[in-house]
Amino acid sequence: MKSITTRQQQVLDVIKGSFDRTGKAPTIVEMRAAMSINSNRGITVHLDALEKKGIIIRSKNKTRGIALAECPQ
Fold it and tell me: CA distances (Å), 65 to each of 5, 15, 21, 49, 58, in order?
């Protein structure tokens, strides 16, 4: 796996936790609440980085359009 920042790891942990609990990816609003981040952009910056590094795959125009690259949903 490519090197990721501590904050990117926290976002990834929230995503994995949501899949474990509900079988679905979290929404940006759910990620914001879980991480106490005030803006959507605060989350999307980390999602963009994780996607660029090939760790997640995002589907545009879907509320829960995130899959883990190592185990696509």
Answer: 22, 11, 17, 16, 5
Q: pTM (2 decimals)?
A: 0.87
CATH architecture of 6-68: Orthogonal Bundle (1.10)
Tokens encoding 58: 């995002």
Integer Cα distance of 64 and 33 in angstroms: 15
Q: By the 8 A CB rule, do 19 and 72 touch?
A: no
**Cα 71 to Cα 20: distance, rounded to the nearest angstrom:** 13
List the helix and strand counts (H, then E) for the chain.
3, 2
Give the C-alpha separation, 57 to 49, whole Å.
11
Q: Which residues of the chain have pLDDT under 70?
A: 1, 71-73
